[in-house]
Amino acid sequence: MKPFAELLQQTDFSDADLLRLLKTSDPLECQALYAEAFKRTTQVHGNVIYFRGLIEISNICTYDCRYCGIRKGNLAARRYTLSIDEILEAARYALKAGYGSVALQSGERDDPKFIDFIEEVCAAIHDMSVREFGIAEGCGMTLSFGEQSLETYERWAAAAGNRNALRYLLRIETSNQKLFSHLHSGQGRAQKTYAARLQALSDLRSTGYQVGTGVMIGIPGQSEEDLVRDILTFKELDVDMLGMGPYLVSQGGAMVEEGMMHKDALLRLTRNMLSTTRLALPTVNIAATTALETLESGARTLGVLSGCNVMMPNVTPQRTRASYQLYDNKQGTESDPDSNVQLEAELIANTGRAIGRHLFGSSVHFRSRQKTKKTKAADARP
Ligand code: SAH
Q: Is 245 in the pocket of ligand 1 (CB under 6 A)?
């Protein structure tokens, strides 16, 4: 077998290579893997972490994903929807802090009232970022509202205004189709198909969004081979961004009795997955997630030390934070918005990275795809 150090120097990896990277539990190998991922992140993306202010707009959901604490079937969840004013205030906080973009997320609805509301929200934030903050093109916007029609994606894109900093996050959750069906196996509308998920990602791409996907790591029934296939799927989908975090059990979910991985093993597997993915997809943006921070306090900075280059500090108003409980003990539900200042300080102290203020923060992957497109279009001209 090749020495581990030699493996780390490769730029192309076989499935067996990826599996070996992902599986290692040797502390020295793990440290070498994380250090290599951090180094390559610096080489490709520089020393900057992009920040997105995360606004959790509503926890009303019409689906029943078994892992999720805000699924429709969780009758204990107190449902809320923020007002436009509350959303604007949260966005204002993020833009004042110099985060060049906001990320808007909620439970999944596709009724006309909701579609109109999100359209109005996108337009209002865009307008505010131009008028109040003098951002000529408008701030960056990342939307995360689940599977929608092509027409809806187009309406929201138009409302968000800045097509150069328009993103959408829709995780595949797992590329193991049997497991995907099991996770989304409720009756009727609760059911989701992997095929529909891929169609949605393709629709997002054709609408012009920078496309982000991702998976949960350590889902009961998921194997390390599944995680390798996840990485290959990210490549096939040619995604621009990734969000991946540990699967954490949720009392409001429908899989409590299936348990979850032990904390230390889960933290290691998550870091291994982040770093292995970074080596395989050097140019994409990878987020250090709230789920990782929930698993262990301070672990978000460990995510950065494993190859992540994006963070999404929560800027949702205090009054509703505790109700957006995707999983148990979600980090940040108690803390006041200024805890983000502390997060920034920790990040700088522990990783040596800087915060990319007033930047849209599109991935190198997206920017080089744009360039290729432009060159091709120029070549096509007579
Ligand atoms: N309804 C939207 C956005 C909210 S859920 C959507 O589904 O896209 C956002 C992400 O939270 C999901 O993609 C899932 O990967 C993650 N998530 C949900 N429940 C979780 C849990 N129990 N543990 C870890 N991550 C979870």
A: yes
